[in-house]
Amino acid sequence: MTPLRVAVLEDDKEFLTELVRSLRTIPTISVLVYEQTSYAFIRKVRETQPEILLLDIHLNGESTTGINVAELFELPVMFFSSERKNFLDSIDALKISNKFPVEELGKTFDAKKLAEIFKMFIPRVREYQKNQRVKVKPIGDDEMFITPSEVSFILAENGNHKIYFINHK
Fold first, then answer.
1. Any residues with CB less than 8 A from the CB of 102 and at least 6 apart, and which?
2. Fewest C-beta atoms under 10 Å: which of 24, 52, 73, 102?
């Protein structure tokens, strides 16, 4: 199974280094991006298109929070913060919206605990991915959204682009 692509936003350089080191020990994870500022993080996430975001909630010296970043991208997210109790209402609102999987943990953890959390989180991410809708525009037709379950087979594939055959009755 292909490792899930992860992007990490953490303002504390030492913690970020340790977190990335721990993540790289998990075979089901591939760390694409790790940044200390939301501006650099957002730019790189747009370029690399990860599948999971790991976000510090409170970013020192920034008006943007990890909550704001999660809402911007609407990707599966794992929040971590020593101040998460101050953001519980916002985290709960994201969980209740059910737009994407949301998990949270404190900043004091070890590599083994992180691997265990990901072991439980990854199936939720994979299920979320299966149910995502994709916008397509057939030649001479209007745009439409499809889910992978509607796809009969892939007709052609070129790099990151796939042409799907859909069996509409």
1. 70, 76, 77, 78, 79, 91, 94, 95
2. 24
